[in-house]
């Protein structure tokens, strides 16, 4: 499968407007920078979480390239802010606070556990 060219339009935003790959790179790398910070171990932490090399994680943090699809999915499973970004870019939800989303998910899981215990 061909890789999109820099600046190629790929995700619909609204109506006839599109988000290009440069916008995606900026948004994804910005979320990773804000989540993992600028400490000297940020690239190592990010690499470990995504099962990628430290050099690759440094490229993500510098904004040189965004994570590939496999790494993106691994990270989205573990980084609520990245998952929220993906949902917003796809138009699946409004901009909810990631911490609130995490708390809501915890409440849902606890409620499901209580309901399951009540059925036994």
Structure characterization notes:
The protein is mainly α. The chain has a domain of about 80 residues: 434 Repressor (Amino-terminal Domain). Helices cover about 65% and strands about 5% of the residues. Strands 1-2 form a two-stranded antiparallel ribbon. Helix 2 crosses helix 3 and helix 4 packs across helix 5. The longest helix is centred in the last third of the chain and has 22 residues. The N terminus is likely disordered.
Write down how many β-strands occur, each being a DSSP E stretch of 2 or more residues.
2
Radius of gyration: 17 Å
Give the DSSP E fraction (strand runs of 2 or more residues).
5-15%
Number of helical stretches of at least 4 residues: 6
CATH class of the domain at 17-94 equals: Mainly Alpha
State the shape: elongated
Derived structural class: mainly alpha
Per-chain topology:
Blueprint: E1 9-12, E2 18-20, H1 21-36, H2 42-50, H3 54-62, H4 69-78, H5 80-90, H6 98-119
Antiparallel strand pairs: 1-2
């Amino acid at each position: 499968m061909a890789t999109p060219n820099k600046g190629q339009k790929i995700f619909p935003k609204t109506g006839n407007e599109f988000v290009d790959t440069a916008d995606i790179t900026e948004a994804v790398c910005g979320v990773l920078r804000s989540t993992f910070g600028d400490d000297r171990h940020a690239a190592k932490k990010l690499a470990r979480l995504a099962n990628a090399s430290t050099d690759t994680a440094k490229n993500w943090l510098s904004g040189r390239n965004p994570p590939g699809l496999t790494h993106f999915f691994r990270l989205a499973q573990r980084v609520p802010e990245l998952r929220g970004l993906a949902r917003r870019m796809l138009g699946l939800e409004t901009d909810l606070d990631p911490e609130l989303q995490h708390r809501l998910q915890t409440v849902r899981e606890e409620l499901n556990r209580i309901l399951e215990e009540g059925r036994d």
